[in-house]
């Protein structure tokens, strides 16, 4: 777990701002759920034999009432619980999104921490394949907004439970015939969760799993039509995709469409966004049945990929650094600074030196103004203040141009000093 400090935190805020704007354009509304939930919610929702439940959850017993609780390892189960408990689907489907920290006790890797952050979109109450496609289009639009390249889309369909069961029988039979080639983890999962064996990263097992029965070959007409509708919409929108028959995702609650956006630039942690349809999760957590589909992206991974592709976001600097040579000018200067801020201008005010040596020399204040990244220095000099003006000096265009502006008319000229860029 790590701290996120300035100026790096500004990059997080920028990314969150881009996503909020995009979610608004797609009519997705924000939901915020607790970080701590009953452990049973995740056991029922994610599956008892998933890695998350078996190995990675931070779980504890509430010492006041003995309740078993867990820090959320993902957000979908909590969103489903909140939607059910608050009857949000009583008047139709809902499009929701969330942002926040998740917790898994796993080996830290590049772009992955034990406290990590996800941003996700969930559409609940909509059974149609067009919503699966809409969510994929939403994620794809984000990559364009961010300028990310070399992100590929992989798709699969997990069908419906009865189709998965038929595939499961065939898969277990096939793997039993090749049991000598299975590693210990695969043998342990052979009868409890054989589908997850297809997602193995063990190089020695790749030939075995590549030749295994494909779930998509067990799908009936309705499941195939659902999948073909999704891909037709993607094709019509010029979204490239590839079929990955081994794509199963890490939670047990998925059915029909599953997908991942993957990059080769982050090593083994190449998935930056993944999701799919989960029509049975509402029932699994004890709620009234309702269809749903969603995805989540890893914030750390997306920021790491932006950095890897040379899109290093500059922390937004302030518009103005206020230089105040004389402490006697502070009351009037701060009044003007507050008027500038009220007009929407970002102002960093110079403060007295820690040594108690007063406000500091003009030279030292200009040095601090330059290092602050501000576009302009506004000088509240004694002579200027006596004449009811301030000096405004450009710090970034190389001209060093300096003009005077009236103190009495701050709100008219201060907005013209707004020059912050986001990247």
UniProtKB/TrEMBL annotation:
Signal peptide: none annotated. PROSITE patterns: AA_TRNA_LIGASE_II. InterPro entries: aa-tRNA-synth_II, aa-tRNA-synth_II/BPL/LPL, Anticodon-bd, Anticodon-bd_dom_sf, His-tRNA-ligase, HisRS-like_core, HisRS/HisZ. Belongs to the class-II aminoacyl-tRNA synthetase family. One of its GO terms (molecular function) is ATP binding. It catalyses: tRNA(His) + L-histidine + ATP = L-histidyl-tRNA(His) + AMP + diphosphate + H(+). Keywords: Aminoacyl-tRNA synthetase, ATP-binding, Cytoplasm, Ligase, Nucleotide-binding, Protein biosynthesis. The lineage of its organism: Bacteria, Pseudomonadati, Pseudomonadota, Betaproteobacteria, Burkholderiales. Residues 15-325 form the Aminoacyl-transfer RNA synthetases class-II family profile domain. This is Histidine--tRNA ligase. L-histidine binds at residues 74-76, 104, 118, 122, 249, 253-254. It comes from Acidovorax temperans. Homodimer. The gene is hisS. The keyword Oxidoreductase does not apply. Its main location: cytoplasm. PANTHER family: HISTIDINE--TRNA LIGASE, MITOCHONDRIAL-RELATED, HISTIDYL-TRNA SYNTHETASE. Its EC number is 6.1.1.21. The keyword ATP-binding applies. GO terms for cellular component: cytoplasm. One of its GO terms (biological process) is histidyl-tRNA aminoacylation. It is an enzyme of class 6 (ligase). It comes from the Bacteria. It is found in: Cytoplasm.
